[in-house]
Every structure is written in C-alpha cells, then in structure tokens.
C-alpha cells in the first residue's frame, strides 16, 4: 500500500512539475504499467483493502470483549474479498487500458486510410475535369467526382475527431492529464489462439471469479450464523430467520453461477467468431495484394490509369487495416474471457 501511495505521489509531482508533459512513447506494456500506477479505481481498491484490515483488527478486539465468532469471520471474509477485488480491478483496468490502446492504434490507421482516400478523390476529380475540358466527360461526371471528394473529406473529419477522443480516453484510464503528449509505438502484434475446453468453465469460475468467491464466503458465514443460533437459548424466531438468510444466500450463489457460466460461454463463442473473422480478413489481404500487383503490371504496360493504381493501393491498405482491427478485437475478447474465468 505504501508503495502505491508513493508511486501515485511521485506521478502527481511529475505532472505538476511538467516532466510528464514531454512526449511519451506508449507500447502495450507501458500502458498496462501506467494504468496500475495512476488509475484512481485501482487506488480506491487498495484503500478498501486497508480499511478491511482495520475492520478485521477491530472485530478481533471486540471478540475479546464480547465473544462474536460470526463478526470475526465476516471481517476476515471482507478482507479476503477486498484483496480479491483488488486483483480483479487490476485485471479489469489492464483489459480496459489494452482496449483503449488498440482503439487509438486502429483509429490512427483509419485516419491514414482516410487521407489516402481524399488524395484518391482529388486525383479522380482532376482527371474528370481534364476529360471534361477535352469533351470526354459530362457535368454529371464532375458532380459525381465532387461528391466523392466531399464524402472522403467528411470521412476524414469524422475519424480525426474519433481519433482525438480515443487518445483522451486512453489518457483517462491511465490517470494522466488530458494535455499529455504521447505517441504510440508501432509494434507488431501476434495472433495466439486459446487452448481451452468449455467443460472447465464452471470449475474455473468457482475457484477464480471474485464475485463467486465473495458469495461463497457469504454462504459460509450464513451457515455459521445459522449453526450458532441452534442452541436452546435462541428464540425460534431467530433460528428461522437465520435459516431463511442462509437459504437466500445459497440461491443467490446458484443464480450467480448460472449467470457467469452463460456469460463465459458467450464470450468463448464470440472468441471463436472473431478468430474466424481474423482469418477471413487475412484472406482479403491476400486478394487485395494480388489485385494491386496485377493493376501495377497493367499500368506498366499502359493498360491502366494512375488512379487505378492508387485505388488498388487504397484497397490493399484498407484490407490491412481491417485485418489489424480484427486482430485487436480478438485480443481484447481473449483478455476479457481470460479475466472472467481466471486464466490470467
């Protein structure tokens, strides 16, 4: 806890002193480190652990004065839940930071593609105007070319706005000021499948999921509470109340188990769909590469216009961008699934 406070204090001093204002170079690992060192949600989870520790100490002291096994057990479970929640929060923040980092990269590529599309539309308009002056095009052809340029320019404006917003959202999850200047590292991302059997989902959720573990602790406390109320000195009303409370928590545990199982199954199925989408996107890249090669050969033989070469290259860049986006979507979904079932 002291390390976290010191780290956040140092980061705050750097921000105030202006040392963080220099352009940062972010790769995926750097983003994850920043997210855990400066994110306010992660810090709050640390505070919950410290509060739970003090509450456990207080419960133990109260137990020496007035015997209360249930209170001590509840305080211990609360501390354990807080620690689990801290670990879960760390994983969730990493996944969120990873998702926003991928989004920044994807939108930066979309901006580049939109710029190429504008250049292509401008070249097309220039060619149409030249053909019109030679009597080989109509005013309608010029109108269509102008409309194409207008649409390409609007698309560029749209993705530039989305890119700026994505960068601010990344800074937000990292806990950095919005005015922080940064660049993203053009690193290479690998495609790695998850070897997994869906039959393991219930078991993994039971032993790893913090919500399941927290409710399991509540079931233990409710059973202990019911057991301590079975003596002859406990009123029948209290005994019945403890029994109903125990049954309620057990039903809630079963409901949560079913809900999380369906959620994990849905994420797993989505992962398989995204894997197929990525493979399909790679096929599209192969087709676009071959088309670009053929068009370039035809251009060298005098059978294609420069605009056709540019169009084929834009199509190839678009196919590459779609393949990278499909990879990003797959990696994010994989992290979400592994986070839910505890495969991290």
Helix content range: over 70%
**Overall pLDDT level:** 86
The number of distinct β-strands equals 2
Number of H/I helices: 9
CATH architecture of one domain: Up-down Bundle
What strand line-up does the widest sheet have? Answer: 1-2
Structural class based on helices, strands and sheet pairing = mainly alpha
Give the low-confidence spans.
1-21
The biggest beta sheet reads:
2 strands, parallel
The CATH class of one domain is identified as Mainly Alpha
- Write down the Rg: 29 Å
- Element-level helix/strand string: HEHHHHEHHHH
Distance between the termini: 22 Å
Shape: elongated
Q: β content, as a range?
A: under 5%
CATH superfamily membership of one domain, which one? Outer membrane efflux proteins (OEP)
What is the CATH T-level topology of one domain? Outer membrane efflux proteins (OEP)
């Amino acid at each position: 806890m002291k390390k976290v406070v010191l780290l956040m204090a140092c980061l705050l001093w750097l921000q105030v002193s202006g040392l963080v204002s220099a352009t940062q170079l972010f790769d995926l690992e750097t983003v994850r480190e920043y997210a855990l060192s400066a994110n306010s949600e992660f810090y709050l989870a640390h505070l919950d652990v410290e509060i739970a520790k003090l509450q456990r100490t207080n419960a133990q002291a109260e137990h020496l004065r007035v015997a209360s096994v249930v209170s001590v057990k509840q305080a211990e479970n609360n501390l354990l839940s807080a620690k689990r929640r801290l670990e879960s929060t760390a994983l969730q923040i990493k996944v969120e930071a990873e998702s926003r980092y991928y989004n920044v990269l994807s939108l930066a590529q979309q901006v580049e593609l939109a710029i190429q599309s504008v250049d292509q539309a401008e070249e097309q308009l220039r060619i149409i105007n030249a053909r019109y002056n030679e009597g080989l095009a109509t005013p309608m052809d010029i109108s269509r070319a102008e409309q194409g340029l207008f649409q390409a320019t609007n698309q560029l404006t749209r993705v530039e706005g989305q890119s700026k917003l994505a960068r601010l959202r990344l800074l937000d999850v990292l806990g950095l000021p919005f005015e922080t200047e940064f660049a993203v590292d053009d690193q290479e991302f690998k495609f790695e499948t998850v070897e997994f059997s869906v039959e393991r989902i219930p078991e993994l959720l039971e032993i790893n999921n913090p919500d399941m573990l927290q409710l399991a602790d509540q079931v233990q406390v409710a059973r202990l509470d019911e057991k301590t109320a079975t003596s002859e000195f406990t009123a029948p009303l209290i005994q019945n109340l403890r029994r109903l409370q125990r049954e309620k928590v057990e039903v809630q545990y079963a409901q949560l188990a079913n809900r999380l199982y369906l959620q994990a199954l849905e994420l797993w199925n989505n992962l398989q769909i995204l894997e197929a989408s990525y493979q399909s996107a790679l096929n599209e890249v192969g087709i676009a590469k071959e088309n670009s090669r053929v068009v370039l050969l035809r251009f060298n033989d005098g059978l294609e216009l420069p605009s056709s070469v540019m169009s084929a290259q834009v199509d190839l860049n678009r196919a590459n961008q779609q393949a990278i986006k499909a990879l990003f979507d797959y990696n994010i979904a994989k992290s979400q699934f592994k986070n839910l079932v505890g495969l991290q």
